[in-house]
Protein backbone atom coordinates (compact mmCIF):
# COMPACT_ATOMS: atom_id res chain seq x y z
CA UNK A 1 0.00 0.00 0.00
CA UNK A 2 1.28 3.40 -0.94
CA UNK A 3 0.02 6.90 -0.42
CA UNK A 4 1.03 9.14 -3.33
CA UNK A 5 1.23 12.93 -3.48
CA UNK A 6 1.54 14.56 -6.87
CA UNK A 7 2.70 18.17 -7.09
CA UNK A 8 3.24 20.05 -10.36
CA UNK A 9 6.59 21.80 -10.77
CA UNK A 10 6.80 24.65 -13.26
CA UNK A 11 9.98 26.33 -14.47
CA UNK A 12 9.48 29.18 -16.95
CA UNK A 13 10.53 28.10 -20.43
CA UNK A 14 10.55 24.38 -19.61
CA UNK A 15 7.86 21.76 -19.90
CA UNK A 16 5.89 21.24 -16.70
CA UNK A 17 7.21 18.43 -14.58
CA UNK A 18 5.49 16.61 -11.77
CA UNK A 19 6.95 15.58 -8.47
CA UNK A 20 5.49 12.38 -7.10
CA UNK A 21 6.21 11.46 -3.49
CA UNK A 22 5.15 8.09 -2.18
CA UNK A 23 4.80 6.97 1.40
CA UNK A 24 4.76 3.30 2.26
CA UNK A 25 1.54 2.53 4.10
CA UNK A 26 2.27 -1.16 4.52
CA UNK A 27 3.83 -0.59 7.96
CA UNK A 28 0.93 1.62 9.09
CA UNK A 29 -1.56 -1.03 7.96
CA UNK A 30 0.38 -3.77 9.70
CA UNK A 31 0.48 -1.85 12.99
CA UNK A 32 -3.25 -1.10 12.78
CA UNK A 33 -4.00 -4.76 12.00
CA UNK A 34 -1.93 -5.86 15.00
CA UNK A 35 -3.77 -3.43 17.27
CA UNK A 36 -7.16 -4.69 16.12
CA UNK A 37 -6.05 -8.33 16.54
CA UNK A 38 -4.66 -7.58 19.98
CA UNK A 39 -7.90 -6.04 21.27
CA UNK A 40 -9.89 -8.96 19.83
CA UNK A 41 -7.54 -11.55 21.37
CA UNK A 42 -7.42 -9.85 24.77
CA UNK A 43 -11.22 -9.57 24.87
CA UNK A 44 -11.61 -13.21 23.92
CA UNK A 45 -9.07 -14.35 26.54
CA UNK A 46 -10.95 -12.41 29.24
CA UNK A 47 -14.40 -13.40 28.00
CA UNK A 48 -13.74 -17.15 28.30
CA UNK A 49 -13.11 -17.34 32.08
CA UNK A 50 -15.79 -14.69 32.61
CA UNK A 51 -18.40 -16.83 30.79
CA UNK A 52 -17.41 -19.81 32.91
CA UNK A 53 -17.70 -17.74 36.12
CA UNK A 54 -21.17 -16.51 35.17
CA UNK A 55 -22.24 -20.06 34.32
CA UNK A 56 -21.19 -21.32 37.75
CA UNK A 57 -22.85 -18.41 39.56
CA UNK A 58 -26.13 -19.25 37.82
CA UNK A 59 -25.77 -22.94 38.70
CA UNK A 60 -25.04 -22.09 42.33
CA UNK A 61 -28.08 -19.83 42.50
CA UNK A 62 -30.26 -22.44 40.81
CA UNK A 63 -29.84 -26.23 40.50
CA UNK A 64 -26.90 -26.54 42.93
CA UNK A 65 -28.38 -24.23 45.55
CA UNK A 66 -28.72 -26.89 48.23
CA UNK A 67 -25.84 -29.16 47.26
CA UNK A 68 -22.82 -28.45 49.50
CA UNK A 69 -20.50 -30.89 47.63
CA UNK A 70 -21.24 -29.28 44.26
CA UNK A 71 -20.90 -25.83 45.81
CA UNK A 72 -17.36 -26.54 47.09
CA UNK A 73 -16.30 -27.98 43.76
CA UNK A 74 -17.75 -25.10 41.76
CA UNK A 75 -16.26 -22.49 44.08
CA UNK A 76 -12.79 -23.91 43.60
CA UNK A 77 -13.19 -23.85 39.80
CA UNK A 78 -14.47 -20.28 40.03
CA UNK A 79 -11.45 -19.35 42.08
CA UNK A 80 -9.13 -20.78 39.40
CA UNK A 81 -10.95 -18.88 36.66
CA UNK A 82 -10.77 -15.64 38.62
CA UNK A 83 -7.05 -16.22 39.21
CA UNK A 84 -6.59 -16.76 35.48
CA UNK A 85 -8.30 -13.46 34.75
CA UNK A 86 -6.15 -11.72 37.35
CA UNK A 87 -2.95 -13.13 35.80
CA UNK A 88 -4.06 -11.99 32.38
CA UNK A 89 -4.89 -8.47 33.53
CA UNK A 90 -1.55 -8.27 35.42
CA UNK A 91 0.35 -9.33 32.28
CA UNK A 92 -1.58 -6.88 30.10
CA UNK A 93 -0.77 -4.07 32.54
CA UNK A 94 2.92 -5.07 32.69
CA UNK A 95 3.15 -5.06 28.92
CA UNK A 96 1.45 -1.71 28.62
CA UNK A 97 3.66 -0.17 31.34
CA UNK A 98 6.83 -1.43 29.61
CA UNK A 99 5.59 -0.13 26.24
CA UNK A 100 4.93 3.30 27.71
CA UNK A 101 8.55 3.50 28.90
CA UNK A 102 10.13 1.95 25.82
CA UNK A 103 12.09 5.10 24.93
CA UNK A 104 13.63 5.48 28.40
CA UNK A 105 16.53 3.17 29.03
CA UNK A 106 16.63 2.03 32.68
CA UNK A 107 20.00 2.65 34.31
CA UNK A 108 20.10 1.26 37.86
CA UNK A 109 23.22 -0.94 38.33
CA UNK A 110 21.78 -4.43 38.82
CA UNK A 111 23.80 -7.46 39.92
CA UNK A 112 22.36 -9.93 37.42
CA UNK A 113 24.17 -12.88 39.01
CA UNK A 114 22.47 -12.32 42.38
CA UNK A 115 19.15 -11.65 40.70
CA UNK A 116 19.21 -14.85 38.61
CA UNK A 117 20.33 -16.90 41.64
CA UNK A 118 17.38 -15.50 43.58
CA UNK A 119 14.88 -16.33 40.82
CA UNK A 120 16.32 -19.84 40.60
CA UNK A 121 15.73 -20.24 44.36
CA UNK A 122 12.10 -19.20 44.02
CA UNK A 123 11.56 -21.62 41.10
CA UNK A 124 13.33 -24.62 42.67
CA UNK A 125 10.09 -26.03 44.18
CA UNK A 126 8.44 -25.90 40.72
CA UNK A 127 11.47 -27.69 39.20
CA UNK A 128 11.27 -30.37 41.88
CA UNK A 129 7.55 -30.78 41.32
CA UNK A 130 8.15 -31.29 37.59
CA UNK A 131 11.13 -33.55 38.30
CA UNK A 132 13.51 -31.37 36.28
CA UNK A 133 17.01 -30.74 37.67
CA UNK A 134 18.37 -27.19 37.35
CA UNK A 135 21.99 -26.93 36.19
CA UNK A 136 23.55 -23.55 36.95
CA UNK A 137 26.60 -21.88 35.51
CA UNK A 138 26.57 -18.30 36.78
CA UNK A 139 29.60 -16.06 36.50
CA UNK A 140 29.87 -13.88 39.62
CA UNK A 141 29.49 -10.08 39.60
CA UNK A 142 27.81 -9.63 36.24
CA UNK A 143 26.42 -6.11 36.53
CA UNK A 144 24.07 -4.56 33.98
CA UNK A 145 22.33 -1.18 33.83
CA UNK A 146 18.64 -1.86 34.06
CA UNK A 147 15.39 -2.15 35.94
CA UNK A 148 15.64 -4.80 38.63
CA UNK A 149 12.00 -5.96 38.47
CA UNK A 150 11.99 -6.15 34.69
CA UNK A 151 15.27 -8.09 34.57
CA UNK A 152 13.88 -10.48 37.18
CA UNK A 153 10.86 -10.95 34.94
CA UNK A 154 13.08 -12.04 32.02
CA UNK A 155 14.74 -14.76 34.12
CA UNK A 156 11.43 -15.81 35.69
CA UNK A 157 9.51 -16.12 32.42
CA UNK A 158 12.26 -17.98 30.55
CA UNK A 159 12.99 -20.44 33.37
CA UNK A 160 9.28 -20.99 34.06
CA UNK A 161 8.70 -21.73 30.36
CA UNK A 162 11.58 -24.23 30.33
CA UNK A 163 9.97 -25.96 33.33
CA UNK A 164 6.48 -25.85 31.77
CA UNK A 165 7.31 -26.88 28.20
CA UNK A 166 10.82 -28.32 28.44
CA UNK A 167 10.18 -31.67 30.05
CA UNK A 168 12.34 -34.27 28.29
CA UNK A 169 10.70 -37.39 26.91
CA UNK A 170 13.75 -39.47 27.90
CA UNK A 171 13.65 -39.10 31.67
CA UNK A 172 14.81 -36.15 33.75
CA UNK A 173 17.21 -33.98 31.77
CA UNK A 174 18.30 -30.67 33.26
CA UNK A 175 17.30 -27.16 32.37
CA UNK A 176 20.63 -25.37 31.96
CA UNK A 177 20.80 -21.76 33.14
CA UNK A 178 23.91 -19.77 32.41
CA UNK A 179 25.13 -16.22 32.78
CA UNK A 180 28.46 -14.89 31.57
CA UNK A 181 30.17 -11.69 30.51
CA UNK A 182 31.20 -11.64 26.86
CA UNK A 183 33.16 -8.48 26.15
CA UNK A 184 30.88 -5.52 26.87
CA UNK A 185 27.76 -7.66 27.09
CA UNK A 186 26.12 -10.03 29.55
CA UNK A 187 24.71 -13.22 28.07
CA UNK A 188 21.93 -15.01 29.95
CA UNK A 189 20.62 -18.26 28.55
CA UNK A 190 18.13 -20.96 29.39
CA UNK A 191 18.32 -24.28 27.60
CA UNK A 192 15.90 -27.18 27.92
CA UNK A 193 15.85 -30.67 26.46
CA UNK A 194 12.11 -30.81 25.92
CA UNK A 195 10.17 -31.47 22.70
CA UNK A 196 11.19 -28.10 21.18
CA UNK A 197 9.10 -26.24 18.59
CA UNK A 198 8.97 -26.48 14.80
CA UNK A 199 10.95 -23.88 12.86
CA UNK A 200 7.91 -22.02 11.50
CA UNK A 201 6.74 -21.11 15.02
CA UNK A 202 10.01 -19.59 16.20
CA UNK A 203 9.64 -16.06 14.75
CA UNK A 204 6.09 -15.84 16.11
CA UNK A 205 6.70 -17.00 19.71
CA UNK A 206 7.15 -13.43 20.97
CA UNK A 207 3.84 -12.25 19.48
CA UNK A 208 1.13 -11.50 22.02
CA UNK A 209 -1.13 -14.51 22.58
CA UNK A 210 0.78 -16.71 20.13
CA UNK A 211 0.99 -20.27 21.46
CA UNK A 212 2.12 -23.44 19.75
CA UNK A 213 -0.44 -25.45 21.73
CA UNK A 214 -3.09 -23.22 23.30
CA UNK A 215 -4.64 -26.06 25.33
CA UNK A 216 -1.33 -26.98 26.92
CA UNK A 217 -0.45 -23.36 27.64
CA UNK A 218 -3.82 -22.70 29.34
CA UNK A 219 -3.63 -25.95 31.32
CA UNK A 220 -0.27 -24.77 32.67
CA UNK A 221 -1.68 -21.39 33.62
CA UNK A 222 -0.08 -19.51 30.72
CA UNK A 223 -1.47 -16.21 29.44
CA UNK A 224 0.31 -16.26 26.07
CA UNK A 225 2.02 -12.97 26.96
CA UNK A 226 5.20 -14.17 28.72
CA UNK A 227 7.57 -14.03 25.76
CA UNK A 228 6.04 -10.79 24.44
CA UNK A 229 6.85 -9.28 27.85
CA UNK A 230 10.40 -10.70 27.73
CA UNK A 231 10.97 -9.27 24.24
CA UNK A 232 9.76 -5.80 25.23
CA UNK A 233 11.93 -5.73 28.35
CA UNK A 234 14.98 -6.85 26.36
CA UNK A 235 14.39 -4.15 23.72
CA UNK A 236 13.91 -1.46 26.40
CA UNK A 237 17.30 -2.50 27.79
CA UNK A 238 18.79 -2.22 24.27
CA UNK A 239 19.50 -5.96 24.26
CA UNK A 240 18.70 -8.86 21.97
CA UNK A 241 16.65 -12.04 22.37
CA UNK A 242 17.68 -15.10 20.38
CA UNK A 243 15.61 -18.28 20.12
CA UNK A 244 16.87 -21.59 18.79
CA UNK A 245 14.70 -24.67 18.82
CA UNK A 246 14.26 -27.92 16.95
CA UNK A 247 11.62 -30.61 17.26
CA UNK A 248 12.84 -33.37 19.52
CA UNK A 249 15.92 -31.43 20.57
CA UNK A 250 14.74 -28.78 22.99
CA UNK A 251 15.03 -25.02 23.00
CA UNK A 252 17.54 -22.31 23.80
CA UNK A 253 16.53 -18.78 24.75
CA UNK A 254 19.46 -16.35 24.87
CA UNK A 255 19.32 -12.76 26.09
CA UNK A 256 22.25 -10.44 25.38
CA UNK A 257 22.34 -7.19 27.34
CA UNK A 258 24.81 -4.31 27.43
CA UNK A 259 26.86 -4.78 30.64
CA UNK A 260 28.64 -2.32 32.90
CA UNK A 261 32.34 -2.31 32.21
CA UNK A 262 33.65 -3.10 35.70
CA UNK A 263 37.12 -1.72 34.94
CA UNK A 264 35.71 1.69 34.01
CA UNK A 265 32.50 1.58 36.04
CA UNK A 266 30.30 2.55 33.10
P1 LIG B 1 2.48 -18.92 27.67
O1 LIG B 1 1.75 -18.15 28.68
O2 LIG B 1 1.59 -19.62 26.70
O3 LIG B 1 3.53 -19.79 28.26
P2 LIG B 1 4.65 -17.44 26.39
O4 LIG B 1 4.58 -16.15 25.64
O5 LIG B 1 5.55 -17.51 27.57
O6 LIG B 1 3.16 -17.78 26.75
O7 LIG B 1 5.07 -18.58 25.35
C1 LIG B 1 4.39 -18.67 24.10
C2 LIG B 1 4.42 -20.09 23.60
O8 LIG B 1 5.76 -20.45 23.24
C3 LIG B 1 3.98 -21.13 24.61
O9 LIG B 1 2.57 -21.27 24.64
C4 LIG B 1 4.67 -22.38 24.06
O10 LIG B 1 3.89 -22.94 23.03
C5 LIG B 1 5.96 -21.83 23.45
N1 LIG B 1 7.15 -22.00 24.33
C6 LIG B 1 7.67 -21.10 25.16
N2 LIG B 1 8.77 -21.58 25.78
C7 LIG B 1 8.96 -22.82 25.32
C8 LIG B 1 9.93 -23.87 25.55
N3 LIG B 1 10.92 -23.69 26.42
N4 LIG B 1 9.79 -25.03 24.86
C9 LIG B 1 8.79 -25.21 23.97
N5 LIG B 1 7.84 -24.28 23.70
C10 LIG B 1 7.92 -23.10 24.36
TrEMBL record:
Secretion signal, residue range per the UniProt entry: none
Superkingdom of origin organism: Bacteria
Reaction(s) catalysed by this chain's protein: ATP + protein L-histidine = ADP + protein N-phospho-L-histidine
Keyword field: Kinase, Phosphoprotein, Transferase, Two-component regulatory system
Gene Ontology MF, one: kinase activity
Enzyme Commission code(s) on record: 2.7.13.3
Residue intervals of the Histidine kinase domain: 41-261
Annotated protein name in UniProt: histidine kinase
Amino acid sequence: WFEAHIAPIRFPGYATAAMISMRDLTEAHRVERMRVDFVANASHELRTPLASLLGFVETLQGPAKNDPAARDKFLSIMREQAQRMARLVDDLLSLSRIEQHMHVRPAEAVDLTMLVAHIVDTLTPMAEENNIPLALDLEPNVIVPGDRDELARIAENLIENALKYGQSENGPEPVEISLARKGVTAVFSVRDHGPGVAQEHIPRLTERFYRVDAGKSRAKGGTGLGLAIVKHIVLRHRGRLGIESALGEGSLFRVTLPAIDQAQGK
